[in-house]
Automatic annotation (TrEMBL):
Pfam families: ECH_2. Belongs to the enoyl-CoA hydratase/isomerase family. Residues 1-174 form the Enoyl-CoA hydratase/isomerase domain. Hydrolyzes 3-hydroxyisobutyryl-CoA (HIBYL-CoA), a saline catabolite. Has high activity toward isobutyryl-CoA. Could be an isobutyryl-CoA dehydrogenase that functions in valine catabolism. Its EC number is 3.1.2.4. Keywords: Hydrolase. The keyword Cell cycle does not apply. PANTHER family: 3-HYDROXYISOBUTYRYL-COA HYDROLASE, MITOCHONDRIAL, 3-HYDROXYISOBUTYRYL-COA HYDROLASE-RELATED. GO terms for biological process: L-valine catabolic process. GO terms for molecular function: 3-hydroxyisobutyryl-CoA hydrolase activity. The keyword Mitochondrion does not apply. This is 3-hydroxyisobutyryl-CoA hydrolase.
Length: 201
């Protein structure tokens, strides 16, 4: 949760009552004061052996590459120098996935890093609308056929290779749906005061 940025602090359960008592004494809504109060009870969580955070160095090295092709190439380089089952499985999963889906997902994740929650929801809504409508690709239906209907687990993606999915094709997934029956997501604008809390990892 911390590494994903979904949580800002880790407080062990045996310190929660102490934290609660301290927070009750805080007589301000100033986020700096609230954060510093919570910080007094925080600690680094211990990692389970199978935790992805134990692979964070490899994840950061490989998945920080600019394109999906470069990510896979980087993973293959790591695999050639290591017997990591996780790396081999990750390469296999990426190579079996829809090339179009991989590219639009990477783009969505990258854009989301600098966007508000509302902007992320709108971007993902547009992307999912185009996918479900089959506007630019029928890969979602082909994936459902291969996994759920025929169960042959052998989808025929179109286009079949990453290098055939061009940036302009990816761009289309993030455009407003040109259909009055598919209204754009219109969220109220939320204002944010004070400090933006950041993950502790």
């Amino acid at each position: 949760m911390l590494a994903c940025g979904l949580a800002t602090h880790f407080v062990p359960s045996n310190r929660m009552l102490l934290l609660e008592e301290s927070v009750k004494k805080v007589d301000t809504s100033n986020s700096f004061v609230v954060c510093s109060t919570i910080d007094q009870f925080c600690q680094q969580p211990s990692l389970k052996q199978k935790s992805s955070l134990n692979r964070l160095e490899i994840i950061n090295k490989c998945f920080s590459k600019r394109t999906v092709e470069e990510i896979i190439s980087s993973l293959e380089e790591v695999a050639s120098n290591s017997a990591s089952k996780w790396v081999a499985q990750t390469i296999q999963y990426l190579k079996k996935a829809s090339p179009t889906s991989l590219k639009i997902t990477l783009r969505s994740i990258r854009e989301g890093r600098t966007q508000t929650v509302g902007e992320c929801l709108q971007r993902e809504y547009r992307m999912v609308c185009h996918v479900v409508r089959g506007d630019f690709s029928r890969d979602i239906f082909e994936g459902c056929r291969a996994i759920l209907v025929d169960k042959d687990k052998n989808p025929k993606w179109m286009p079949p290779r990453l290098e055939q999915v061009h940036d302009d094709a990816v761009e289309e997934y993030f455009s407003r749906v040109d259909d009055l029956e598919w209204e754009d997501l219109d969220l109220p604008v939320m204002c944010s005061n004070g400090r933006i809390m950041e993950s502790k990892l």
